[in-house]
Amino acid sequence: MKSNLTLSLVIILGCSMAGVSCGPIAELKSFSDADLTPPVLIKVCSLSPTEIELTFDEQCAAVVEGLKIYPELEISRVNTHGQAIILTVSPQTPGSEYTVEGVVEDAGGNSLSFITHIYGYNPLIPELLINEFTTRGAGNHPDVVELSILSPGNMGGVTLYQGTPDNWRDRLIFPPFAVAEDNFIIIHFRPEGLPEEINETEAMNLSGGLDASDDAFDFWIAQGTGISGNNGVISLYEQPGGRIIDGVLYSNRTSESDTTYRGFGTLAALERADELLADRGWIVSFDLARPEDAVNPEGSTGTRSICRSSLSADTDTLADWHIVPTRGATFGYPNSDEVYIP
Question: What is the mean pLDDT of residues 234-246?
């Protein structure tokens, strides 16, 4: 076997050196130019109650007989639009999790088998804001984020990130449950792992645990270790891969803090800031995000929260936010307009 391989190589090189046109050289070049890379699935989301979009890194076609959705949804049509494949399906249950399984092939015959998850299209998403948060919690007041409900609706599939969809440390996908105007949801990012730390979808007084509220829906980040204290992004989306609802950029750094990551200190922090801008969740003074455009968490503690005004102004800038005095945090209730003065 070894001698045959050597002989073939000698023949190829000999033709090349002699300037003779021969099959092996042409075939070798053709092989080296061939597309040998399978498609990559980069995004999946529900476009409507009866449409699911799968986006790949190149144009490809679905192997129709290999497409399956669990719990079962009937697939009535498969259309390709550029790099996206759109499935027309029977109506989804809002906020319910579905598994999509299939095979796609590109023009070069390279195939990808995939299994991914989507959440049923939710036409009843309420108006929401990230309303109050702490990143430097300690002791009996660990890190939390509060969402304010501005209109009635259903939370099914709504997704909260510590980070952004493409770069996150913690993610919470809400199950389907009804909310009313003026409700609050408190997300606890550093649970103790107690059995009484219950995700509430009906009554508000079921959960125990540190800073649980009887007047808000409590949710707990499983195995959460807290929110980055000095530098980060908190963002809220309609569903994984969906449109942004709200976001906040915070940092105690400056553009001069480092030269490698535009002052944000790490590649992850920079990428999250840039993604928040790209999704139009934050407005900055110049073309690129800088730490100076962020809410500064300096002075905040577990009881000196970072919050909006009592009227929940929302300009997607640092002007919306202030730090309240000691013991001024109001999780589960309207925000305080008092400002912490060092």
Answer: 94
